Amino acid sequence: MEKPTLTTVEGLRLALEELGLNSKGLKPELKQRYRKAVKKQKSSLPPPPPKEQQNEDKSAQPFDYYLFFDVEATCIEGGGFKYDNEIIEFPVDEFRSYVKPTINPTLSEFCINLTGIQQSTIDQSPTFIEVLNQLQEFLARYDLFQSASASFVTDGPFDIRDFITKQCKHSKIKKRPAYFDIPWVNIRKLFKDFYGLKENKNINGMLNHLQMQFKGREHSGLDDARNLAAIGKHMHEEGCIFKTNCKFNRNKRL
Ligand code: AMP
Ligand code: MG
Ligand code: MG
């Protein structure tokens, strides 16, 4: 993937603020401060868990890691798929950042009620390019999609097929990050196939089927991702193999 760079003073200031650091000064100074902080942060991160604890049933599953991923996006009531959704929450299991939208920076009442994400939260959040940068650091920490194999797991095809595609267009990212271009696991489809159901079920439908309860707030990206992970864990314990079953077709226009 083309690594996004923090090229603007505004971007650097936001990134420094995000880290709780002084955001005053000229561009070279800001750049140096940011680089130092990232380096320091990396060296103080706890090491990943020992290999033997990372995947007890390595032989049973085709990937070392599964990244349960569920974004939230700007929306309006009845907006449908034609609406210019911009990502406002981007969580991958325990990596989560809110994201500042740029085309329609004001959230609709509907969107606030649906996602619980406040205007003041996204106003102070980094832009999508910066969040991708942070994700890159998270992935690098565990060597994901490198020496450790990994697959995203999503609730339906929407997050990677639609929201990421729209957001890359909004953020003028010409080359989609490679890890969004490779096949991933659509857990709705996997669930339907594994339990031999006629129809796909949404998160609550899957939880009900397993006699489990939603924990947290529905349509909060991180809580959705955590509940999807709980469903995935249950399926894994029941012997489900998490093979990829969904891929991005770049020729299909939204
Ligand atoms: P979800 O993962 O189900 O929380 O949905 C992801 C995103 O899809 C939301 O942040 C909204 O942008 C959009 N969305 C979900 N449900 C609706 C709805 N009923 N009407 C309009 N947009 C929706
Ligand atoms: Mg979702
Ligand atoms: Mg969600």
Automatic annotation (TrEMBL):
<dbReference type="InterPro" id="IPR012337">
    <property type="entry name" value="RNaseH-like_sf"/>
</dbReference>
<keyword id="KW-0963">Cytoplasm</keyword>
<dbReference type="InterPro" id="IPR047201">
    <property type="entry name" value="ERI-1_3'hExo-like"/>
</dbReference>
<dbReference type="InterPro" id="IPR051274">
    <property type="entry name" value="3-5_Exoribonuclease"/>
</dbReference>
<feature type="region of interest" description="Disordered">
    <location>
        <begin position="36"/>
        <end position="58"/>
    </location>
</feature>
<keyword id="KW-0943">RNA-mediated gene silencing</keyword>
<dbReference type="Pfam" id="PF00929">
    <property type="entry name" value="RNase_T"/>
</dbReference>
<keyword id="KW-0378">Hydrolase</keyword>
<keyword id="KW-0269">Exonuclease</keyword>
<dbReference type="InterPro" id="IPR036397">
    <property type="entry name" value="RNaseH_sf"/>
</dbReference>
<protein>
    <recommendedName>
        <fullName>SAP domain-containing protein</fullName>
    </recommendedName>
</protein>
<dbReference type="InterPro" id="IPR003034">
    <property type="entry name" value="SAP_dom"/>
</dbReference>
<feature type="domain" description="SAP">
    <location>
        <begin position="4"/>
        <end position="38"/>
    </location>
</feature>
<dbReference type="InterPro" id="IPR013520">
    <property type="entry name" value="Ribonucl_H"/>
</dbReference>
<keyword id="KW-0540">Nuclease</keyword>
